[in-house]
């Protein structure tokens, strides 16, 4: 019989099903708790109602949310506040640097703009015990407390009531379709904008993760907005290449910390510090919205753009715009130079002149010294003060007939202030030469790799600089200094060591200036070849002289001449002594 087939191996166990991530908007972005229904959550801001109370005002951060409750219209709402841990036992008041605030917001806000902003209903009354601390009547246009209510002055507990909660009553009048909530928050003193910026930076994920996500977002955005893929329907539309501007749209300054909203899809960013400073006193209609696309951008949804920040850090301070490709490459497309205007200096001078004129006019003129009165005159003046000190003494002036009346000194007319102008033609600085405009579309296509870059023509060869001709040969000019004694000479007071060779066209000599006195005295430095003033003048305008050590054999031939050299050789031969033979004493040869 045939053997039985081996049993089939058991199938591998099925892996446990992975839990799917929660859909977007089902978790609170602040406390990570599930958002149950629309009455207690907000899908636009991504926060539950307690987190909306806490993040309503980032400049007054909450230390603890004591309690919150939805309000019922037409019925008293009683709320007990557990403020015992924050009340001092001896004084019965809140601890120093603590504030108790009452914040109210609409749960079912009609727009996301009003979800994080405090607002009061049309009619509301708040009682602390039996004392009314706030009242707002319907259609009250002169309501004086639009912001949160500070309950700190009313937190005064008696010694026997320190350990008891604080009772608050709230009466509401609104339509039945509106859902309102009230919260009581213990907060700390006001923070500065820089501290809020630091809080946002601390909430950011690591740089590598942000850079990876930003590069993917840049790739998708550039591919959707490529100008070379425009359909026929959009042929009349003005299409520009993808650019990233490095100036903030609110402050118009260079971006220092690039940021955007988590729901923003655009490439452009804004400055984080300018954005937070603007949101501090902005109306609720525009609060916490992106200044570029008007989408929600609350504090917990701000993201630092790693790609834009890398572009800002790697470019110069005067760069205002860059072209961006889908692979993350960029190229500078616009710069801005600092404008220098002379009107600032003119304004400073005018201000200094005005201050000096005001100081001169403010100083009182010196009074002339009055005549000294005797004791009798002082007694008479004391009897009748009005006549003595009121009547001015008469001064008689005698004017001769021949003398003409004194002429008044002509005061110099004040110069009319000149109108300041920014035009360089009216005294301002000349504007720098403008560079040729950059063809952004072509530059982007080159950056994207669609076209080849234009080959620039090779630079022209550098021009050969003509060396100035040497003039240090022949006579010394007036004022020239001798190279040996360093004394100035008059015209033709010496000669230079040098010449211009006619055959080779170059120069020879050491170009030292030698006066006639040194020519005669310092023989060890001059050498054997010397000249005199009369001899040099007899040689004509092309006369020259050189040290013997500076002369070449050709220079010596040109200096002495060929005939003179032959004569000198003959003279040397003649001066040589002839050899004398000794006379024989009779010893001769046989043939003599």
Kindly describe this structure.
The protein has helices spanning 49-54, 193-202, 207-224, 272-279, 306-314, 343-362, 375-383, 385-390, 440-448, 516-521, 523-526, 533-538, 553-560, 562-575; strands at residues 41-42, 47-48, 62-71, 77-81, 99-106, 123-128, 131-136, 149-150, 166-173, 180-187, 243-245, 258-261, 270-271, 302-304, 319-324, 330-335, 494-496, 499-500, 507-508, 513-515. By secondary structure, it is of the alpha+beta class. The model is unreliable at 18-22, 38-42, 388-432 and 579-584 (pLDDT under 50).
SSE arrangement:
Blueprint: E1 41-42, E2 47-48, H1 49-54, E3 62-71, E4 77-81, E5 99-106, E6 123-128, E7 131-136, E8 149-150, E9 166-173, E10 180-187, H2 193-202, H3 207-224, E11 243-245, E12 258-261, E13 270-271, H4 272-279, E14 302-304, H5 306-314, E15 319-324, E16 330-335, H6 343-362, H7 375-383, H8 385-390, H9 440-448, E17 494-496, E18 499-500, E19 507-508, E20 513-515, H10 516-521, H11 523-526, H12 533-538, H13 553-560, H14 562-575
Antiparallel strand pairs: 1-2, 3-10, 4-9, 5-8, 5-10, 6-7, 6-9, 11-15, 12-13, 12-14, 15-16, 17-20, 18-19
Helix pairs in contact: 2-4
Low-confidence stretches: 18-22, 38-42, 388-432, 579-584
Structural category = alpha+beta
Radius of gyration: 51 Å
> What is the end-to-end distance?
159 Å
Q: Provide a count of the helices.
A: 14
User: How many β strands by DSSP?
Assistant: 20
What helical percentage do the residues reach? 10-25%
Largest sheet: 4 strands, antiparallel
Strand line-up of the largest beta sheet: 3-10-5-8
The percent range for strand residues is 15-25%
Overall mean pLDDT: 76
Shape: elongated
Quaternary arrangement of the chains shown? Answer: single chain
